[in-house]
Design goal:
This protein has 14 helices and ten strands. The protein is an alpha+beta fold and 409 residues long. The strands form two sheets. The chain has a five-stranded antiparallel beta sheet with strand order 2-1-5-4-3, sandwiched between helices. A five-stranded mixed beta sheet has the order 7-8-6-9-10, with helices on both faces. Helix 6 packs across helix 7 and helix 11 packs across helix 13. The termini are far apart.
Length: 409
């Protein structure tokens, strides 16, 4: 009895060769596994469940990475010796190539003496796997159209379609009746790498209940709470996303990874707002954040997330220009650094000594600049409400750019 698709090919290969085989995608996620020792039973599978880290010897062990690179560059079978550290027997690794050049995965045959008929059988299985992958790709393109329609409905303004979306979501592996987090993943300059396949491989290996869908120039990841697994709070979600981010860094070297998170979705109408929030979180973090973390939660952005709601743009710009505009124009006209001085002073909680130390100036020089800034504008450093307004004005400038302070013609 054999399975279907890649599993079916693996089962037939085990039957004909009498050795264990393993099929992986290009990111080393197990697609099929079959054992000669247990031909009638189900193939052994990796255990599921959330893991604390994403570990792949193919990326981390230089010795194994050497063989992977060889298979990748030559597109020819590679003999890998026994690996005692991983309790893995010697095998031949066949790259699964589609279209003569696109490497889509790996076929591992745990036998080193593949000559004559055995080699022909392995090559035939390799061709069958390539065909299965082509078929799967065609099916995926059809599913892609369904996904697009689903997302359009989920993020649209139309009402009275909840029942339809719930049913369509279930067909795509998403249960909209359960609480879910909506995550947006951007991977820039990934050299044409299939980011969606990489994400699917990673969340599968990590045992995360998630579904991935492409949307415009990004990818939407639905992280679903499952019955019996407990609630996923922001801290736990952030931990999982940190692992996904690190895994993407390994699988997509050179790519600029950004991850944004919206609200937890309890109802269907929450998803549109969550998408907007996740995208806004990414944009805002790129503009104003100094830390190197790739993950931005919308509500972890604090007050700025609330200030930059759609419709507030003009009001915020006018507020910042009225408060800081004269200072900005003075600096431009006199080639001074009053804006920088004021901001540093506020960041150091109005401590002259520490602000002067950061700016590498004498405290008296700092006092002179602050006095000049106060005379140039209506800034009042001793008034806590005015200090708060100045700090907010600087945050608005971080978001929209300091050039918005220029006087309008």
């Amino acid at each position: 009895m054999t399975g279907q698709g890649c599993q079916g090919v693996a089962d037939l290969l085990v039957r004909d060769l009498g050795v264990d085989v393993l099929v992986e995608d290009r990111f080393f996620r197990v697609l099929a596994r079959a054992s000669a020792k247990n031909p009638n039973g189900p193939p052994a599978r990796d255990s599921k469940g959330h893991k604390d880290e994403y570990r792949k010897p193919q990326y981390e062990d230089p010795e194994i990475a050497k063989f992977v690179q060889l298979a990748w560059t030559t597109k020819r079978p590679v003999l890998m010796p026994k690996l005692p550290a991983y309790d893995v027997e010697a095998r031949v690794i066949f790259p699964i190539v589609v279209g003569g050049e696109k490497l889509k995965g790996y076929l591992h045959v745990f036998e080193t003496n593949l000559i004559g008929e055995k080699h022909q059988i392995a090559q035939a299985a390799l061709g069958a796997l390539a065909v299965e992958i082509v078929i799967e790709n065609k099916q995926a393109r059809l599913v892609e159209e369904i996904k697009k329609g689903f997302l359009l409905g989920l993020f649209s303004e139309e009402k009275d379609q909840d029942a339809h979306l719930v049913e369509e979501g279930r067909l795509l592996g998403i249960d909209l009746t359960r609480p879910s987090w909506l995550v947006v993943v951007e991977a820039e300059d990934s050299n044409g790498t299939d980011v969606e396949v990489a994400l699917k491989s990673i969340i599968s290996d990590l045992g995360i209940n998630g579904s991935v869908m492409p949307l415009m120039n990004c990818y939407v990841l639905f992280v679903e709470e499952r019955q019996g697994n407990g609630e996923i709070d922001w801290a736990e979600l952030n931990q999982r996303l940190e692992i996904i981010s690190a895994a993407l860094e390994k699988t997509l070297p050179g790519a600029e990874i950004s991850i944004g998170v919206g609200r937890k979705c309890l109802k269907i109408r929450d998803y549109k707002a969550a998408l907007r929030e996740a995208q806004k979180a990414i944009t805002t973090k790129k503009l104003v954040s100094k830390d190197q973390k790739r993950i931005a939660g919308y509500y972890s952005l604090g007050l700025l997330a609330l200030l930059t709601q759609p419709g507030n743009e003009r009001l915020l710009v006018d507020f910042a220009r009225q408060l800081l505009g004269p200072l900005y124009e003075y600096d431009r006209a006199n080639n001074t650094r009053l804006m920088e001085t004021v901001r540093c002073y506020l960041q150091h909680r109005c401590c002259v000594q520490s602000a002067a130390a950061e700016l590498f100036i004498h405290p008296n020089t700092l006092r002179y600049r602050l006095d000049r800034a106060a005379k140039t504008t209506s800034l009042e450093f001793l008034n806590p409400d005015r200090r708060l307004e100045m700090e907010l004005a600087f945050k608005v400038c971080d978001y929209f750019g300091f050039e918005v302070l220029a006087a309008e013609d």
